[in-house]
Every structure is written in C-alpha cells, then in structure tokens.
Specification:
It is built from 8 helices and 9 strands. It has 225 residues and is of the alpha/beta class.
Amino acid sequence: MRIDIISAVPELLESPFQHSILKRAQEKELFEVVVHNLREYCPKKHRQIDDYAFGGGAGMVMMIEPIDNCIRQLKSERNYDEVIFLTPDGELFSQQTANRFSLLENIIILCGHYKGVDERVREHFITREISIGNYVLSGGELAAAVVVDAIGRLIPGVLNDETSALSDSFQDNLLAPPVYTRPATYNNWSVPEVLLSGHEAKIAEWRYEKSLQRTQERRPELLKK
Ligand code: ADE
C-alpha cells in the first residue's frame, strides 16, 4: 500500500513513520508513505498556498491551484482508491474505517490548514472527508499521522503476530482486556491467578469477561452496536 500525504507543513510528518512498526512495514516494502510539500506545487516564483476568503472574514483559505497541481501529478503516476481530506467537519474516524482503508492499494491524504480549503477542492477532488475527533487541531498533519498509523499497522503482514490486531480494542466493538507482565507480584500487588495457571480456555474466558466488563463500564454504547 502507498499513502501520499499532501501538506503545507511537511516537517511535522518527518518522524512519525520512521520508528517501530511502521518503519519495519516500510522496510519490508508492505507500505510506503510519501509526504509532498504543497509549496512545491505552486505556480512559479511566488510560493503562495493560501489567500483571503471571498466575501471577507477572518482567516486564510487554502488555494485550489497548488492542490490541483499536486493531485494531478500523483494521479498521472498511478490510480488512487481514495482522496481523503482531514477536517474537523468530516466523518468520524473509527477502527472499522481503518480496517477498510488498510485493504486499499493507493491513498492520497490532504491535510487542511488555515480557515479551510477552497470548497471546489472538496467538491471536485476529495472522495472522503475524515475527522479524528470532536476537537480542532491547528492543521491536518497530526490527524494524518494518527490515520496513517492506524491503517499501516493493519496491513496484512505488518504485525508479527497476525492475531494481535484482532485482539485490539474496538476490533469487535469490545475494549481490550487488562494485560500484565513480570514480576507476578510487585509491592504486594499480584497478577490475577488465572493468568499464571497455563489453562488456555480459562484464560480466554477471563479475558472475554474483562473485555465485556470494561466495555460496559467505560463505553456502554459500543455494546449496542
Ligand atoms: N484538522 C483540524 N482538526 C482536525 C480533526 N479533528 N480531525 C481531522 N483533521 C483536522
């Protein structure tokens, strides 16, 4: 899978994909993330990517031309399954959406900035609008890091143990159960006995019960889905 991210502040995306699971995924060539600096797609000389809003009002608006140039260039090189715009007024991102995106071949992600983007970009180029939560970030870059991370780790072959994504919180609308590691007792705080028993069926049952209980207590709305 290849993800192309279009950004006005590409420096913000230099590090997030260079470590741990996503780094390994790229080394194994299961996954490629390419960040494009929007300013490089401006018409020659002035590297302007935003302008005043027609009709007045505070805040600058991202211009259509650099975005058009960048998307056109990318589309001339390969086919894209989705062109995603990250914006607080988009559809709320979820594990289910991450699962679906992880099966795609090529995705473009456009990071929003300033007061927004010329509406014609949204009308003519964007296929999905995604928000990572009900709060406003100063730009879409951190949201892009979240979305790409959530997708990347789900790509088949990326996680060492394929089942470990299946036991993530939200995969089956349940939160994950508690986990423990050594030492078995610390400060007189002990690990639940059943986890030390070696009895696989009992451990699975305990984990399921804890998942259910945790979901009931913290996110009861998930159980209604
Ligand atoms: N840009 C600014 N805020 C955002 C959010 N909550 N989700 C996605 N993109 C954003």
